[in-house]
Amino acid sequence: MTEPVHKVVEAVWRIESARIIAVLARMLQEVGLAEELAQDALVAALERWPRDGMPDNPAAWLMTVAKNRALDHLRRRSLHAQKEGELTYEVENQLRDAMPEEPDAQLDRDDIGDDLLRLIFVSCHPLLSTDARVALTLRLLGGLSTDEIARACLVPEPTVAQRIVRAKRTLLEARVPFEVPRASELPERMASVLQVVYLIFNEGYAATSGPNWTRPALCEEALRLGRILAELASGEPEVHGLVALMEIQSSRLAARVGPDGQPVLLMDQDRSRWDQLLIRRGLAALERAAALGLGLGPYGLQAAIASCHARALTPGETDWARIAALYDALAQVAPSAVVELNRAVAVSMAYGPQAGLELADTLLSEPTLKHYHLLPSVRGDMLARLGRRSEARAEFERAAGLTRNARERELLLARAHGCLER
Protein backbone atom coordinates (compact mmCIF):
# COMPACT_ATOMS: atom_id res chain seq x y z
CA MET A 1 0.00 0.00 0.00
CA THR A 2 2.93 2.34 0.63
CA GLU A 3 3.84 2.79 -3.03
CA PRO A 4 0.33 3.87 -4.19
CA VAL A 5 0.09 6.32 -1.28
CA HIS A 6 3.45 7.82 -2.18
CA LYS A 7 2.25 8.29 -5.75
CA VAL A 8 -0.84 10.12 -4.50
CA VAL A 9 1.31 12.34 -2.28
CA GLU A 10 3.56 13.18 -5.21
CA ALA A 11 0.57 13.89 -7.46
CA VAL A 12 -1.09 16.18 -4.90
CA TRP A 13 2.21 17.94 -4.26
CA ARG A 14 2.76 18.50 -7.95
CA ILE A 15 -0.60 20.22 -8.24
CA GLU A 16 -0.69 22.13 -4.96
CA SER A 17 2.93 23.02 -4.18
CA ALA A 18 2.85 26.40 -5.91
CA ARG A 19 -0.24 27.52 -3.99
CA ILE A 20 1.20 26.29 -0.70
CA ILE A 21 4.51 28.08 -1.26
CA ALA A 22 2.70 31.25 -2.34
CA VAL A 23 0.53 31.30 0.81
CA LEU A 24 3.55 30.69 3.05
CA ALA A 25 5.56 33.35 1.23
CA ARG A 26 2.88 35.92 2.01
CA MET A 27 2.92 34.88 5.67
CA LEU A 28 6.69 34.74 6.04
CA GLN A 29 7.80 37.35 3.50
CA GLU A 30 10.61 34.98 2.59
CA VAL A 31 10.42 32.76 -0.49
CA GLY A 32 13.23 30.36 0.38
CA LEU A 33 11.86 29.65 3.84
CA ALA A 34 8.36 29.24 2.41
CA GLU A 35 9.59 26.48 0.11
CA GLU A 36 11.44 24.77 2.96
CA LEU A 37 8.38 24.68 5.21
CA ALA A 38 6.21 23.52 2.34
CA GLN A 39 8.67 20.69 1.80
CA ASP A 40 8.33 19.86 5.51
CA ALA A 41 4.61 19.36 4.94
CA LEU A 42 5.40 17.05 2.05
CA VAL A 43 7.73 14.99 4.23
CA ALA A 44 5.03 14.79 6.91
CA ALA A 45 2.56 13.45 4.33
CA LEU A 46 5.04 10.84 3.15
CA GLU A 47 5.49 9.71 6.74
CA ARG A 48 1.90 9.82 8.01
CA TRP A 49 -0.37 8.91 5.11
CA PRO A 50 0.99 5.37 4.63
CA ARG A 51 0.62 4.82 8.39
CA ASP A 52 -2.62 6.66 9.21
CA GLY A 53 -4.41 6.45 5.89
CA MET A 54 -5.26 9.05 3.28
CA PRO A 55 -7.03 12.20 4.51
CA ASP A 56 -10.40 13.04 2.97
CA ASN A 57 -8.94 16.17 1.38
CA PRO A 58 -5.21 15.64 0.72
CA ALA A 59 -4.65 19.13 -0.68
CA ALA A 60 -6.26 20.81 2.34
CA TRP A 61 -4.23 18.58 4.66
CA LEU A 62 -0.96 19.68 3.06
CA MET A 63 -1.99 23.33 3.16
CA THR A 64 -2.99 23.14 6.82
CA VAL A 65 0.20 21.40 7.92
CA ALA A 66 2.32 23.86 5.94
CA LYS A 67 0.56 26.89 7.43
CA ASN A 68 0.93 25.44 10.92
CA ARG A 69 4.66 25.07 10.27
CA ALA A 70 4.78 28.72 9.21
CA LEU A 71 2.79 29.82 12.25
CA ASP A 72 5.16 27.91 14.56
CA HIS A 73 8.12 29.57 12.87
CA LEU A 74 6.63 33.04 13.28
CA ARG A 75 6.00 32.38 16.96
CA ARG A 76 9.56 31.18 17.50
CA ARG A 77 10.88 34.20 15.64
CA SER A 78 9.14 36.60 17.99
CA LEU A 79 11.65 38.18 20.36
CA HIS A 80 9.04 39.33 22.86
CA ALA A 81 6.95 36.67 24.55
CA GLN A 82 4.47 39.27 25.76
CA LYS A 83 3.47 39.92 22.16
CA GLU A 84 2.50 36.30 21.61
CA GLY A 85 -1.21 37.04 21.68
CA GLU A 86 -0.88 39.97 19.29
CA LEU A 87 1.35 37.98 16.97
CA THR A 88 -1.03 35.03 16.89
CA TYR A 89 -3.94 37.36 16.14
CA GLU A 90 -2.01 38.97 13.26
CA VAL A 91 -0.90 35.65 11.86
CA GLU A 92 -4.39 34.18 12.02
CA ASN A 93 -5.63 37.19 10.06
CA GLN A 94 -2.88 36.52 7.54
CA LEU A 95 -3.99 32.90 7.27
CA ARG A 96 -7.54 33.94 6.47
CA ASP A 97 -6.37 36.46 3.88
CA ALA A 98 -3.88 34.02 2.35
CA MET A 99 -6.32 31.26 1.43
CA PRO A 100 -5.75 30.26 -2.21
CA GLU A 101 -8.34 31.46 -4.64
CA GLU A 102 -10.26 29.39 -7.17
CA PRO A 103 -8.60 29.07 -10.61
CA ASP A 104 -11.10 31.45 -12.20
CA ALA A 105 -11.02 34.05 -9.42
CA GLN A 106 -10.93 37.64 -10.64
CA LEU A 107 -8.86 40.56 -9.43
CA ASP A 108 -9.93 41.71 -5.95
CA ARG A 109 -9.07 44.03 -3.06
CA ASP A 110 -5.42 44.73 -3.90
CA ASP A 111 -3.82 45.50 -7.25
CA ILE A 112 -3.95 41.75 -7.78
CA GLY A 113 -5.49 39.57 -5.11
CA ASP A 114 -3.56 36.48 -6.08
CA ASP A 115 -0.73 34.95 -4.10
CA LEU A 116 0.59 33.03 -7.09
CA LEU A 117 0.98 36.20 -9.14
CA ARG A 118 2.75 37.93 -6.26
CA LEU A 119 5.10 34.96 -6.10
CA ILE A 120 5.89 35.08 -9.80
CA PHE A 121 6.78 38.79 -9.63
CA VAL A 122 9.02 38.19 -6.63
CA SER A 123 10.68 35.29 -8.42
CA CYS A 124 11.24 37.56 -11.42
CA HIS A 125 12.72 40.43 -9.42
CA PRO A 126 15.21 42.67 -11.32
CA LEU A 127 17.91 41.82 -8.77
CA LEU A 128 18.07 38.36 -10.33
CA SER A 129 19.51 37.50 -13.70
CA THR A 130 17.00 36.51 -16.37
CA ASP A 131 18.13 32.89 -16.20
CA ALA A 132 17.76 32.87 -12.41
CA ARG A 133 14.26 34.35 -12.63
CA VAL A 134 13.19 31.65 -15.05
CA ALA A 135 14.68 28.82 -12.99
CA LEU A 136 13.31 30.03 -9.65
CA THR A 137 9.80 30.66 -10.94
CA LEU A 138 9.63 27.32 -12.69
CA ARG A 139 10.72 25.72 -9.45
CA LEU A 140 8.32 27.57 -7.15
CA LEU A 141 5.27 28.02 -9.37
CA GLY A 142 5.64 25.21 -11.86
CA GLY A 143 6.68 22.62 -9.30
CA LEU A 144 9.33 21.40 -11.75
CA SER A 145 12.37 19.45 -10.69
CA THR A 146 15.84 20.80 -11.35
CA ASP A 147 16.25 18.25 -14.13
CA GLU A 148 13.01 19.29 -15.83
CA ILE A 149 13.99 22.96 -15.68
CA ALA A 150 17.39 22.15 -17.16
CA ARG A 151 15.81 20.36 -20.08
CA ALA A 152 13.22 23.09 -20.60
CA CYS A 153 15.98 25.72 -20.70
CA LEU A 154 18.50 23.52 -22.57
CA VAL A 155 21.23 24.00 -19.94
CA PRO A 156 23.10 21.56 -17.63
CA GLU A 157 21.32 20.50 -14.44
CA PRO A 158 24.10 21.72 -12.05
CA THR A 159 23.82 25.16 -13.61
CA VAL A 160 20.12 25.32 -12.82
CA ALA A 161 20.68 24.14 -9.24
CA GLN A 162 23.24 26.91 -8.67
CA ARG A 163 20.91 29.52 -10.15
CA ILE A 164 18.09 28.55 -7.78
CA VAL A 165 20.27 28.58 -4.67
CA ARG A 166 21.82 31.93 -5.56
CA ALA A 167 18.45 33.43 -6.45
CA LYS A 168 16.95 32.54 -3.06
CA ARG A 169 20.00 33.92 -1.29
CA THR A 170 19.80 37.17 -3.25
CA LEU A 171 16.12 37.66 -2.46
CA LEU A 172 16.74 36.95 1.22
CA GLU A 173 19.71 39.29 1.56
CA ALA A 174 17.87 42.07 -0.28
CA ARG A 175 14.73 41.59 1.85
CA VAL A 176 12.55 41.68 -1.26
CA PRO A 177 8.90 42.19 -0.17
CA PHE A 178 6.18 39.79 -1.24
CA GLU A 179 4.12 42.19 -3.32
CA VAL A 180 3.08 43.12 -6.84
CA PRO A 181 5.41 45.81 -8.28
CA ARG A 182 4.28 49.40 -8.75
CA ALA A 183 2.92 50.44 -12.14
CA SER A 184 6.16 52.28 -12.92
CA GLU A 185 8.15 49.08 -12.43
CA LEU A 186 5.94 46.80 -14.50
CA PRO A 187 7.54 47.19 -17.97
CA GLU A 188 11.00 46.03 -16.89
CA ARG A 189 9.51 43.08 -15.05
CA MET A 190 6.98 41.97 -17.66
CA ALA A 191 9.27 40.41 -20.29
CA SER A 192 10.80 37.99 -17.82
CA VAL A 193 7.41 37.15 -16.33
CA LEU A 194 6.00 36.34 -19.77
CA GLN A 195 8.98 34.14 -20.53
CA VAL A 196 8.48 32.20 -17.34
CA VAL A 197 4.73 31.79 -17.84
CA TYR A 198 5.35 30.45 -21.33
CA LEU A 199 7.96 27.98 -20.14
CA ILE A 200 5.53 26.70 -17.51
CA PHE A 201 2.91 26.32 -20.21
CA ASN A 202 5.31 24.47 -22.47
CA GLU A 203 6.18 22.00 -19.72
CA GLY A 204 2.47 21.24 -19.45
CA TYR A 205 1.95 21.06 -23.21
CA ALA A 206 4.85 18.68 -23.82
CA ALA A 207 6.27 17.29 -20.57
CA THR A 208 10.03 16.82 -20.59
CA SER A 209 9.86 13.67 -18.48
CA GLY A 210 7.53 11.31 -16.70
CA PRO A 211 4.85 8.86 -17.79
CA ASN A 212 2.51 11.42 -19.41
CA TRP A 213 3.05 13.39 -22.58
CA THR A 214 1.04 16.36 -21.33
CA ARG A 215 0.40 17.91 -17.92
CA PRO A 216 -2.81 19.91 -18.43
CA ALA A 217 -2.78 21.36 -14.90
CA LEU A 218 0.40 23.29 -15.71
CA CYS A 219 -1.15 24.62 -18.92
CA GLU A 220 -4.24 25.72 -17.01
CA GLU A 221 -2.13 27.47 -14.36
CA ALA A 222 0.01 29.27 -16.94
CA LEU A 223 -3.09 30.32 -18.85
CA ARG A 224 -4.73 31.60 -15.68
CA LEU A 225 -1.66 33.67 -14.84
CA GLY A 226 -1.53 34.92 -18.42
CA ARG A 227 -5.15 36.06 -18.32
CA ILE A 228 -4.52 37.96 -15.09
CA LEU A 229 -1.44 39.57 -16.62
CA ALA A 230 -3.55 40.64 -19.60
CA GLU A 231 -5.88 42.46 -17.18
CA LEU A 232 -2.91 44.06 -15.42
CA ALA A 233 -1.08 45.20 -18.55
CA SER A 234 -3.82 45.58 -21.15
CA GLY A 235 -1.70 47.96 -23.24
CA GLU A 236 1.12 45.49 -23.79
CA PRO A 237 0.69 43.60 -27.08
CA GLU A 238 3.01 40.77 -26.08
CA VAL A 239 0.85 39.95 -23.06
CA HIS A 240 -2.13 39.45 -25.36
CA GLY A 241 0.10 37.62 -27.83
CA LEU A 242 1.15 35.13 -25.17
CA VAL A 243 -2.42 34.63 -23.99
CA ALA A 244 -3.51 34.08 -27.60
CA LEU A 245 -0.78 31.51 -28.10
CA MET A 246 -1.65 29.62 -24.92
CA GLU A 247 -5.40 29.70 -25.60
CA ILE A 248 -4.96 28.25 -29.09
CA GLN A 249 -2.41 25.65 -28.02
CA SER A 250 -4.62 24.64 -25.07
CA SER A 251 -7.48 24.00 -27.47
CA ARG A 252 -5.60 20.92 -28.74
CA LEU A 253 -4.83 19.27 -25.41
CA ALA A 254 -7.69 16.76 -25.53
CA ALA A 255 -6.68 15.70 -29.04
CA ARG A 256 -2.97 15.43 -28.25
CA VAL A 257 -3.36 12.10 -26.45
CA GLY A 258 -5.19 8.93 -27.42
CA PRO A 259 -7.45 6.74 -25.26
CA ASP A 260 -4.48 5.11 -23.56
CA GLY A 261 -2.49 8.33 -23.14
CA GLN A 262 -0.35 7.79 -26.20
CA PRO A 263 0.81 10.94 -28.07
CA VAL A 264 -1.09 12.01 -31.17
CA LEU A 265 0.88 14.26 -33.52
CA LEU A 266 -0.65 17.46 -34.86
CA MET A 267 -1.33 16.20 -38.38
CA ASP A 268 -3.01 13.05 -37.02
CA GLN A 269 -5.29 14.73 -34.49
CA ASP A 270 -9.07 14.59 -34.61
CA ARG A 271 -9.76 18.27 -35.09
CA SER A 272 -13.35 17.89 -33.98
CA ARG A 273 -11.89 17.47 -30.48
CA TRP A 274 -10.21 20.86 -30.57
CA ASP A 275 -11.88 23.25 -28.12
CA GLN A 276 -13.54 25.90 -30.27
CA LEU A 277 -14.17 28.22 -27.33
CA LEU A 278 -10.46 28.37 -26.57
CA ILE A 279 -9.71 28.93 -30.24
CA ARG A 280 -12.16 31.85 -30.38
CA ARG A 281 -10.66 33.31 -27.22
CA GLY A 282 -7.18 32.91 -28.68
CA LEU A 283 -8.08 34.58 -31.97
CA ALA A 284 -9.72 37.44 -30.06
CA ALA A 285 -6.59 37.91 -27.95
CA LEU A 286 -4.48 37.93 -31.13
CA GLU A 287 -6.74 40.64 -32.55
CA ARG A 288 -6.27 42.68 -29.36
CA ALA A 289 -2.50 42.39 -29.71
CA ALA A 290 -2.62 43.55 -33.33
CA ALA A 291 -5.10 46.36 -32.60
CA LEU A 292 -2.62 48.07 -30.29
CA GLY A 293 -0.68 49.04 -33.41
CA LEU A 294 2.78 48.26 -32.07
CA GLY A 295 3.42 45.23 -34.24
CA LEU A 296 3.56 41.59 -33.21
CA GLY A 297 6.45 40.43 -31.06
CA PRO A 298 7.71 36.86 -30.60
CA TYR A 299 4.61 35.64 -28.76
CA GLY A 300 2.25 37.36 -31.15
CA LEU A 301 4.03 35.81 -34.13
CA GLN A 302 3.86 32.36 -32.56
CA ALA A 303 0.17 32.93 -31.91
CA ALA A 304 -0.28 33.88 -35.56
CA ILE A 305 1.41 30.59 -36.52
CA ALA A 306 -0.88 28.68 -34.16
CA SER A 307 -3.88 30.47 -35.67
CA CYS A 308 -3.00 29.06 -39.09
CA HIS A 309 -3.45 25.56 -37.70
CA ALA A 310 -6.59 26.54 -35.78
CA ARG A 311 -8.27 27.89 -38.91
CA ALA A 312 -7.49 24.78 -40.99
CA LEU A 313 -10.44 22.38 -40.85
CA THR A 314 -8.25 19.57 -42.17
CA PRO A 315 -4.46 19.08 -42.22
CA GLY A 316 -4.46 19.53 -45.98
CA GLU A 317 -5.92 23.03 -45.67
CA THR A 318 -3.01 24.29 -43.54
CA ASP A 319 -1.35 27.36 -45.04
CA TRP A 320 2.24 26.16 -44.66
CA ALA A 321 3.64 28.90 -46.90
CA ARG A 322 2.25 31.54 -44.50
CA ILE A 323 3.58 29.59 -41.53
CA ALA A 324 7.05 29.49 -43.12
CA ALA A 325 6.87 33.25 -43.72
CA LEU A 326 5.84 33.85 -40.10
CA TYR A 327 8.79 31.76 -38.92
CA ASP A 328 11.03 33.93 -41.12
CA ALA A 329 9.70 36.96 -39.26
CA LEU A 330 10.09 35.23 -35.90
CA ALA A 331 13.70 34.39 -36.71
CA GLN A 332 14.33 38.11 -37.26
CA VAL A 333 12.86 39.33 -33.96
CA ALA A 334 13.80 36.35 -31.75
CA PRO A 335 16.56 34.32 -33.39
CA SER A 336 17.31 30.92 -31.86
CA ALA A 337 18.26 27.41 -32.90
CA VAL A 338 14.81 26.10 -31.91
CA VAL A 339 13.09 28.72 -34.08
CA GLU A 340 15.32 27.68 -36.99
CA LEU A 341 14.38 24.04 -36.44
CA ASN A 342 10.69 24.90 -36.48
CA ARG A 343 11.23 26.99 -39.60
CA ALA A 344 12.83 23.96 -41.25
CA VAL A 345 9.70 21.94 -40.49
CA ALA A 346 7.45 24.62 -42.00
CA VAL A 347 9.64 24.86 -45.10
CA SER A 348 9.55 21.07 -45.50
CA MET A 349 5.76 21.12 -45.42
CA ALA A 350 5.45 24.09 -47.75
CA TYR A 351 8.21 23.33 -50.25
CA GLY A 352 9.12 19.69 -49.77
CA PRO A 353 11.18 17.55 -47.38
CA GLN A 354 14.47 18.10 -49.20
CA ALA A 355 14.29 21.87 -48.69
CA GLY A 356 13.49 21.36 -45.03
CA LEU A 357 16.23 18.78 -44.52
CA GLU A 358 18.83 21.14 -45.92
CA LEU A 359 17.86 23.73 -43.31
CA ALA A 360 17.77 21.15 -40.50
CA ASP A 361 21.22 19.86 -41.45
CA THR A 362 22.71 23.31 -40.85
CA LEU A 363 21.77 22.87 -37.17
CA LEU A 364 23.68 19.62 -36.61
CA SER A 365 26.67 21.46 -35.16
CA GLU A 366 24.56 23.79 -33.00
CA PRO A 367 25.74 23.25 -29.37
CA THR A 368 22.36 24.01 -27.77
CA LEU A 369 20.71 21.28 -29.84
CA LYS A 370 23.33 18.60 -29.16
CA HIS A 371 21.03 16.73 -26.77
CA TYR A 372 17.72 18.10 -28.09
CA HIS A 373 15.68 15.11 -29.17
CA LEU A 374 13.50 17.04 -31.62
CA LEU A 375 16.40 17.66 -34.00
CA PRO A 376 16.87 13.95 -34.89
CA SER A 377 13.09 13.49 -34.71
CA VAL A 378 12.54 16.23 -37.30
CA ARG A 379 15.32 14.87 -39.50
CA GLY A 380 13.85 11.38 -39.21
CA ASP A 381 10.48 12.61 -40.44
CA MET A 382 12.01 14.37 -43.41
CA LEU A 383 14.21 11.41 -44.30
CA ALA A 384 11.21 9.08 -44.11
CA ARG A 385 9.26 11.32 -46.48
CA LEU A 386 12.22 11.19 -48.87
CA GLY A 387 12.18 7.38 -48.77
CA ARG A 388 15.52 7.16 -46.94
CA ARG A 389 14.11 4.72 -44.40
CA SER A 390 17.26 3.27 -42.86
CA GLU A 391 18.56 6.78 -42.13
CA ALA A 392 15.15 7.80 -40.80
CA ARG A 393 15.06 4.79 -38.51
CA ALA A 394 18.47 5.68 -37.06
CA GLU A 395 17.32 9.25 -36.39
CA PHE A 396 14.11 8.16 -34.69
CA GLU A 397 16.06 5.74 -32.50
CA ARG A 398 18.53 8.47 -31.61
CA ALA A 399 15.67 10.81 -30.70
CA ALA A 400 14.09 8.08 -28.55
CA GLY A 401 17.37 7.76 -26.67
CA LEU A 402 17.47 11.48 -25.95
CA THR A 403 13.92 12.09 -24.75
CA ARG A 404 13.07 11.63 -21.07
CA ASN A 405 9.35 11.34 -21.65
CA ALA A 406 8.16 7.74 -21.64
CA ARG A 407 5.22 8.34 -23.98
CA GLU A 408 7.30 10.23 -26.48
CA ARG A 409 9.95 7.51 -26.42
CA GLU A 410 7.28 4.93 -27.29
CA LEU A 411 6.10 7.08 -30.19
CA LEU A 412 9.60 7.57 -31.58
CA LEU A 413 10.44 3.87 -31.32
CA ALA A 414 7.18 3.04 -33.07
CA ARG A 415 8.11 5.41 -35.88
CA ALA A 416 11.54 3.79 -36.10
CA HIS A 417 9.91 0.36 -36.31
CA GLY A 418 7.57 1.67 -38.98
CA CYS A 419 10.55 2.48 -41.18
CA LEU A 420 11.33 -1.26 -41.30
CA GLU A 421 7.84 -2.33 -42.28
CA ARG A 422 7.64 -0.36 -45.47
TrEMBL record:
PANTHER family associated with the record: BLL0085 PROTEIN (PTHR47756:SF1), BLL6612 PROTEIN-RELATED (PTHR47756)
Source species, domain of life: Bacteria
Domain RNA polymerase sigma-70 region, residue spans: 19-78
**Name of the protein this chain belongs to:** RNA polymerase sigma factor
Location of the DUF6596 domain: 189-290
Please list the GO biological process terms of this entry. Answer: DNA-templated transcription initiation
Asked if the Swiss-Prot or TrEMBL record annotates the protein with the keyword Thylakoid, the reply is no
Instruction: Tell me where in this chain the RNA polymerase sigma factor 70 region 4 type domain is found.
Output: 121-171
Q: In the UniProt record, does the keyword Transport occur? A: no
Question: Family per UniProt?
Answer: Belongs to the sigma-70 factor family. ECF subfamily.
Q: Which GO terms describe its molecular function?
A: DNA binding; sigma factor activity
Q: What's in the keyword line of the UniProt record?
A: DNA-binding, Sigma factor, Transcription, Transcription regulation
Q: Name one Pfam family in it.
A: DUF6596
Annotated PROSITE patterns: SIGMA70_ECF
Cited InterPro entries = DUF6596, RNA_pol_sigma-70_dom, RNA_pol_sigma70_ECF_CS, RNA_pol_sigma70_r2, RNA_pol_sigma70_r4_t2, RNA_pol_sigma_r2, RNA_pol_sigma_r3/r4-like, WH-like_DNA-bd_sf
The family database entries (SUPFAM superfamilies) matched by this protein are listed as:
Sigma2 domain of RNA polymerase sigma factors (SSF88946), Sigma3 and sigma4 domains of RNA polymerase sigma factors (SSF88659)
